[in-house]
Amino acid sequence: MKKYFLIILTIIIVSSCKNSTKTIKLNDNLFAKGKNISDSIFNGEVKYYDSMDRLLYKTNFINNKLDGSSILYNSKGTVIDSIFYVNGFANGFHYQFDDEGNLTYLDYSYFGLGVGPKVYYMNKQLKNFTFSNFDNQVLFAAEYDDKGINEHSGYPLNFNYYSANLDGGKKIGLKLYLIEPPLVYIKYHLGIINLRDNSKKEISILNRNKVFIDTLIPSLDKDHEYYLQADYIDSISRNDKEYYFQKIKDSLPTHLTGF
């Protein structure tokens, strides 16, 4: 009986140590607090405080690598920076705010690589948008006024394609940037052209919740080709509409865009 009591007591003590909050002094004005931290290894949520016990920064670690949301606060407790990490790499949208909590900037990373949108705000007003590829080349840019986009440059339909063999079958690899400036709706869709009568059939509306897609599609016979189309509709006040169309040939790529 005493043996079993000691085993249970040991389990309780170990569990209590794991769940207790530890504090590490990093310098005279910065302290880290978390349930699973040591002098060298961070695991789980860790919060950073100043000497006045004000929360400055909150993040999450897995085996000493940033993994999860990381949030930076000003001295008033207002969020001024927010980013997400996966296995130590920035991944997803990154937001910056002023001291009043108004959005001033956002960008996007794909496992540590900057790609896609950069959006700038000033005095709560949208000012500038750019979209870059993995080579940091700007594919599309727009300037804004109080009515929406007042000018833009670039081409919203940017993709790369290639031939691929998978499980004994021939495929076409498709990599497409999904550019979507604020106050603009761009519908990306994939379709098939019948080369005999030049008729078109839409087969898929591409995911607008991503910065880019990288997928495989079946190869077609000689009488058919894929096409991509981007329907660009400007802000409601201007209601400008533009349509961009391009075929995807089952051959070596001719439209390279920094993938």
How confident overall, as mean pLDDT?
A: 85
Helix segment tally? 1
CATH class descriptor name of the largest domain: Alpha Beta
Count the E strands.
21
Rg to the nearest angstrom?
A: 26 Å
How much of the polypeptide forms β-strand, as a percent range?
Answer: over 45%
Helix-strand topology string: HEEEEEEEEEEEEEEEEEEEEE
The largest β sheet comes out as:
14 strands, antiparallel
Low-confidence stretches: 1-17, 250-257
In total, the number of domains comes to 2
Structure explained in plain terms:
The longest helix is centred in the first third of the chain and has 18 residues, at 2-19. This protein is mostly beta strands. The protein starts with a helix and ends in an 11-residue tail after the last strand. Helix content is 7%, strand content 61%.
Task: Give keywords.
Immunoglobulin-like, Outer Surface Protein A, domain 3, 2 domains, flat, disordered C terminus, mainly beta, 1 helix, four-stranded antiparallel β-sheet, 7% helix, 259 residues
Topology, element by element:
Blueprint: H1 2-19, E1 22-27, E2 30-37, E3 42-49, E4 55-62, E5 65-66, E6 68-73, E7 79-86, E8 89-90, E9 92-97, E10 103-110, E11 113-122, E12 125-132, E13 138-145, E14 148-154, E15 157-166, E16 169-178, E17 185-194, E18 199-205, E19 212-218, E20 224-233, E21 241-248
Antiparallel strand pairs: 1-2, 2-3, 3-4, 4-5, 4-6, 6-7, 7-8, 7-9, 9-10, 10-11, 11-12, 12-13, 13-14, 15-16, 16-19, 17-18, 17-20, 20-21
